[in-house]
From TrEMBL:
The keyword Oxidoreductase applies. It comes from Chitinimonas lacunae. PROSITE patterns: ALDEHYDE_DEHYDR_CYS, ALDEHYDE_DEHYDR_GLU. The keyword Oxidoreductase applies. NCBIfam families: PRK11241.1 (NF008415), SSADH (TIGR01780). The active site is at 256. Transmembrane segments: none annotated. It comes from the Bacteria. InterPro entries: Ald_DH/histidinol_DH, Ald_DH_C, Ald_DH_CS_CYS, Ald_DH_CS_GLU, Ald_DH_N, Aldehyde_DH_dom, Aldehyde_DH_Superfamily, Succ_semiAld_DH. Keywords: Oxidoreductase. Belongs to the aldehyde dehydrogenase family. This is NADP-dependent succinate-semialdehyde dehydrogenase. Residues 20-479 form the Aldehyde dehydrogenase domain.
Amino acid sequence: MLNLKDPSLLKQQCYIDGQWVAADSGATFEVTNPATGETLARVPRMGEAETRRAIEAAERAWPAWRAKTAKERATVLRKWYELILENQDDLAVLLTAEQGKPLAESRGEVVYGASFFEWFAEEGKRIYGETIPSPWPDRRLLAIRQPIGVAAAVTPWNFPNAMITRKVGPALAAGCPMVLKPASQTPLSALALAELAARAGVPAGVFSVVTGSAKEIGAELCANPIVRKLSFTGSTEIGRELMAACAKDIKKVSLELGGNAPFIVFDDADLDAAVEGAIVSKYRNAGQTCVCANRIYVQSGVYDAFADKLATAVAKLKIGNGLEPGVTQGPMIDMKAVEKVEEHIADAVAKGGQVIAGGRRHALGHSFFEPTIVTGVTCEMKVAREETFGPLAPLFRFDSEQEVIEQANDTEYGLAAYFFSRDLGRAFRVAEALEYGMVGVNSGLISTEVAPFGGVKQSGLGREGSRHGIEDYLEIKYICLAGL
Ligand code: ADP
């Protein structure tokens, strides 16, 4: 079993209204380790009734929480932040066990996740208003920003810690209580965060975690009129459904959805830096991030050299159980994810692509998959249109800057894009021409709590992190003082 310094961080109940509780029916579901198939825990399978109670508890907790000063709320968030850092070893072990990513990546995620509490604890103090020059001599006009109310979050399995904190941090800092439904593959990180919330002094009802049926919990979060705001990270398909459900009572929504990131290597790039960027952007978390490079475009002059260097770098990746030292790529989340990668490889090969590295399930079994490179990829192949969400690097060849910009933008997605070039003019031209919410120039890793994360087109609505991340939890109120 798991070797935790503090075994009480492994929770098998939900946290609602400050209490650890089972499902009304007593039903549970298994949480398994994708690297071994072993059962790690059983957590409650909750549904509408329990979700409603969590929402009602949040509504009761709201007046006192919003009445606190920003500094008082910051003190609680800061304490929670410190507790996460103090327990980062255990949180990383739990995260790797339920999700599969290498321990070093889990530690990185826990620290990154905690940074949203530190950042938003401070941003909460800067929710400034405005005084507006009045068009009337006897009136004064003000605009203030206030918490929107009870907020809900639905989060995915690929970042079981950080996708939660980047929603809960701004919500709580702004004065909004939050009800969270974590992904069913990875509820243990969420429940451990709830235990630390209790220790940090987050009042009952201000943060609740409900695990179980996505359909039932999601339906209640969208339909309950007490909830004024939903923040979702996951697939575009489910995001669209939730947005439609939230339309009924005009809930505010933030959506962080799928991507189909282009990664462009120009002839004038530093090829070693580009290879390093491609490795981190493509193979981190076994290719299962929404900002992973999905389509790698390489200019003709450096195509073969880049492919060779990438293959050499890929050969150095160490595949295995993420809890073992030195492992750089863990298993994929499940067999369905493996099948999608296989489908994309088979489709590319059938249409003329060549596998120059990997290409198959890994000898370790379970959902381990070899890091793969396919060359000779064209825009008729599935990898050009769909998000692979796995360790497959498809290399497209291109000739001109204009051509690659058109191809890169030819998608309904618009989350992250990357390119490598040492030409300053090109750096500005291409960064401005790419229709994406985020662009990495000469880097494959761009996420930080201080910068706005989010997409355009069908990749989402709203921004997380940065000074903009708190906006989604605020409403503007205009006050007109007349008769002066
Ligand atoms: P992924 O491909 O990352 O699993 P999903 O969009 O399927 O993306 O899931 C992201 C989150 O949305 C998870 O917490 C999942 O349980 C939840 N989810 C899936 N289907 C629904 C639904 N119909 N209503 C509400 N939440 C859902």
